[in-house]
Design a protein that fits this description.
This protein is of the alpha+beta class and about 280 residues long. Strand 9 and strand 10 form a beta hairpin. Helix 2 runs antiparallel to helix 3. Strands 5, 6, 7, 8 and 11 form a five-stranded antiparallel β-sheet that branches. It has a four-stranded antiparallel β-sheet with strand order 1-2-3-4, covered by helices on one side. A four-stranded antiparallel β-sheet has the order 12-13-14-15, with no helix packed on it.
């Protein structure tokens, strides 16, 4: 009996010791996992924290802009933002925390291109919208750039200031082509709409390729504006100015506008172009 009792208590002590060692090691394993997970996800959020501070400084600088005309705060933010958008995992990051600074995101229908946009704090009655493009290639490489830098002619009508509200993928090969449609404001009394194509070919981005063939020649963009009359509803005028795309029919519809002595005026007619052979015709 004594031998049996000693064997029983020895076995119980051994099992208890093994259990204690397992319990002591388990938290260490959990901590290791937490550390690895933190390291994997912390690179982009760390930049986001810095971006928040720079975005706050950019917004705050709007008050002093009227006095000194300095726009450095926005340029600093844009540079940092582009760097953050080019991080390997940045395309999977939504940057929702920047919404508090009115920085929004629009995604193309193929999911491979996004635009982050905001109304510049230095805008007046003429809007100036900052649009930052982020693009993911078929090889999952990520690049980003300012849409403003794509304009070769800075005096182009309405450029580079639109709010884009739709991005459509056009079937072209081997290059990728996107159609952007949107709207803006050249002054408090002259809203406008615009249609742009963005061509990405072997890592080069261009919005200056003339892909709209109209009765007046070949254009790099479609543009329509009209003077806002007294007591006229701006939203209703923009609806009449709207440039729309039918993805199924591959047609783009835009308003006909005539220039008069009093400015631009809608004729009430709309023109339609069809995307074929790599162009809207």
């Amino acid at each position: 009996m004594k031998a049996t009792g000693i064997l029983f208590f020895s076995l119980a002590f051994l099992l208890s010791s093994c259990g204690a060692k397992h319990n002591q090691q388990q938290p260490a394993k959990d901590n290791d996992t937490a550390t690895v997970t933190h390291q994997k996800t912390d690179s982009v959020p760390a930049k986001i924290i810095s971006l928040e501070k720079l975005a706050a400084q950019m917004v705050a600088s709007g008050e002093s802009y009227q006095n000194d005309g300095n726009t450095d705060a926005e340029q600093i933010f844009i540079k940092a933002f582009i760097e953050a958008l080019e991080e390997p995992k940045a395309f999977e990051t939504n940057f929702n925390n920047l919404k508090k600074y009115d920085i929004r995101m629009l995604t193309a229908d193929d999911g491979n291109l996004r635009i982050f946009y905001w109304l510049s704090p230095y805008s007046g009655s003429m809007w100036h919208v900052q649009n930052i493009v982020q693009y993911k290639t078929k090889n999952n490489a990520v690049t980003a750039l300012s849409f403003n830098n794509l304009y070769e002619d800075k005096d182009d009508e309405g450029s580079p200031t639109p709010f884009f509200d739709h991005i459509y993928t056009l079937n072209t090969s081997p290059q990728s082509t996107y159609l952007f449609t949107g709207y803006g404001q050249m002054s408090g009394t002259e809203p406008y709409t615009v249609g742009h194509t963005l061509v990405i070919d072997q890592g080069k981005f261009s919005i200056t390729k003339a892909l709209f063939k109209t009765g007046k020649g070949v254009k790099t963009q479609l543009f329509a504006s009209a003077e806002l009359k007294d007591n006229q509803d701006k939203e209703k005028l923009l609806a009449r100015l709207a440039i729309t795309y039918n993805a199924k029919a591959k047609t783009i519809s835009y308003p006909e506008v005539n220039e008069t002595k009093d400015g631009y005026a809608l004729t009430g007619k709309r023109n339609v172009l069809t995307f074929r052979e790599g162009m809207f015709k």
